Amino acid sequence: MRQYVHPRFSALALSIAGALSLGQVHASGFQLKENSVKSMGAAFAGAGVRTDDSSVVVNNPATMARFEGTSFQVDATVIDLSYQFKGSGTDALGRPLVGGDGGDAGDIAAVPAVSMIHKADNDLAFGIMISAPFGLKTEYDSGWSGRYFGQKSEVEIVDLTLAAAIDIVPNRFSVGAGVIYSRADVTLSRGIDFGTLLFSNASTRPLPFARPQAADGIAEVQGDNTGYGWLVGANFSPTDKLAIGLSYRSEIDYELSGNADWTVPGNVAAVFAASPATRNLFRDGAITAKLTTPSVTSVDVRYAFTDRFAMMASWSETGWSSLREVRIDFANPDPESIEPFEWRDTQFVSLGAELKLNERFTLRAGLAFDETPTHIETRTPRMPDDDRIWYSVGGTWNASDALEINFGYTRIEVDSAPLDLDAGGSRLAGSFDGHADLYGVSAQYRF
Question: Quick check: helix, strand or coil at residue 441?
Answer without folding.
Answer: strand
